[in-house]
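Support case: adenosine-5'-diphosphate complex. Customer-provided input:
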Amino acid sequence: MRIFHLSAECYPVAKVGGLADVVGALPKYQNKAGLQAAVVMPYYDRKFTQENEFDIVYQGLTLLGERRLYYQILKERTDKLGFELYLVKIPGLIDRVEVYSYPDETEQFIAFQISFLDWINFSNQSPDIIHCHDHHSGLVPFLIKHSKVYTRLANIPTVFTIHNGQYHGAFGYNKLGYLPEIDETKIGLLDWAGAINPLASAVKCCWKYTTVSPSYLDELTKSSNGLEYLFYLEHNKGQGIINGIDTEVWDPSTDPMIAGNFTNKQITKGKAKNKAALCKHFELSTDKPLIAFIGRLVVEKGADIIAQAMEKSFIDHPDAFNLLILGAGDKETEKELLALKSAFPVNCNVFIGYDEPLAHLIYAGSDFLLMPSRVEPCGLNQLYALRYGTLPMVRSTGGLKDSVIDFGDENGYGIRFNNASIFDICHAVNRAIALFTDIKKLDILRKIMVELDFSWDKSANEYINLYNSLKPKI
Ligand code: ADP
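Agent response - structure generated as follows:
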């Protein structure tokens, strides 16, 4: 079975968040299970593309409205990632450094999707499934069904996975002309609230949509930035499949980015070595519980209330714990966190930026990982933390609810709280400080955590079963 995954991100080619981790791992595990899964993504002028060799496997000319676009399809020569990697390159439009945030993002992603469809259409390819990820490829399910250009592809099943339902990629009808000639009677399938909405259109037109955790499937009917009613209507077409983690990349016994490798059996010693390296680097003492936060500094992640909550905890429990933050995002939040660091220099350090190796070291060397997310479709950080024996402190939402059991409950191993509020975060910090005084108990919990299985094998199979369920309709 030949699958094309379409995505804006893929680790290690270009990563902003969890989307990259999933698209960089799922196809690899699907191929191990006997499928032929490939990834197609936009070209970025980044380290991976500069350091690896590519062949031009196709080139063509397409139209974005009246603009003529000359596109190339590049293929990574060695399949070293465990799958075929194809990049769509368009000089001046899809050949830049950053993944997001350009003013002509709408044009970029439409051009990406049209070039992909033109390529497989005109090179006579017939994949068994086209698997689209997030709104950047959300117009494909509509286009292959209702654009007159792609009638040959109309019966290919499309699967759409929602990694983040807050972002829709919506744009005005003034850009309708960018799409290849469509069946105008079907225009309503593009629409939500008077705009062209790629996420909504994908949910309406795909054969099946998935969310990255079962809880998130239900949550979208209550909170999805205006699409709640759509998710309510289409609920039966949806399925929640929790993400796995790439246990080859995220393995404390081999991870080259941490200070000392350790197996599950050496967890206590291994973590102590990494904590020592981390604390030395950030000038924190090793004898206190180290609570870390890694992630985008946005409201969704509850990052806006971390500084206030931690200030209160530092005042309530002087010198009782240390805090380390790695993240970037909202400028006001960055400022507040840097002010917190200045106010509590002995117990708090903050690194504003994106740093993959540092994230690995923090997972390995911290005692606790805080995730006060308001929205968390799956969340990978808590899964990495568990794998590295770091106890997750999470708000009960989305995938956090599906993957973390409170240590007060039977077979539990984490700290859960209900609200993204200062009170709940401070209470979770109190519990962490208390737990740290009972090292025996913490060790037992660590041993439970590292034995948990969040590998891709199980979830990759769920996707394969889903593909198979679409086969009879082919
Ligand atoms: P999201 O995709 O919503 O940002 P996820 O939990 O699904 O959140 O995935 C986040 C991924 O990005 C994880 O691999 C995490 O380690 C990584 N990450 C987030 N922020 C940073 C950062 N500042 N530096 C390094 N890695 C980061």
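Residues 2-244+457-470 form a domain with the Rossmann fold fold (CATH 3.40.50.2000).

Case will auto-close in a few days if no follow-up is received.
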